[in-house]
Amino acid sequence: xxxxxxxxxxxxxxxxxxxxxxxxxxxxxxxxxxxxxxxxxxxxxxxxxxxxxxxxxxxxxxxxxxxxxxxxxxxxxxxxxxxxxxxxxxxxxxxxxxxxxxxxxxxxxxxxxxxxxxxxxxxxxxxxxxxxxxxxxxxxxxxxxxxxxxxxxxxxxxxxxxxxxxxxxxxxxxxxxxxxxxxxxxxx
Length: 188
Description:
Layout: H1 2-21, H2 23-44, H3 62-77, E1 83-90, H4 100-108, E2 111-118, E3 124-132, H5 139-155, E4 159-163, H6 170-181
Parallel strand pairs: 3-4
Antiparallel strand pairs: 1-2, 2-3
């Protein structure tokens, strides 16, 4: 029995001796493990308020919502059922840059407020709509608008702009849509 005890102690010493002699490395590895575990718990969370993101309380602003409702009414009251309206479409989902490295990021970061596509032509985009609010007078937004205008013009896809006072004006929206939906090749 004493022999088995001595054998057990000898085996334990053979296992523990390298760990004891290299205690600095063991402590370093243990510290890394603890830090990783702490970071994982912090960012992954357990379903509580640890997440860094939350759902927005609304998808549209008030003006965007009113314009969307009016736009749907104009399309469907005029029996333009072949058209679908997609809100907040990234430019990168509509256009392909010729030089991917320099232009994709510029497309990826921007969107149009509404994109009208033709369901009968494999959802081909026929018209984009931007709502120009007071923020479009700021320099950065103005630069973004100039970029969007250039991209749409070079790609032969009409871009229609409405100021924020037109969001409820059905007749104005209809008048502007007719020239593109009856003749989609006309440029803005």
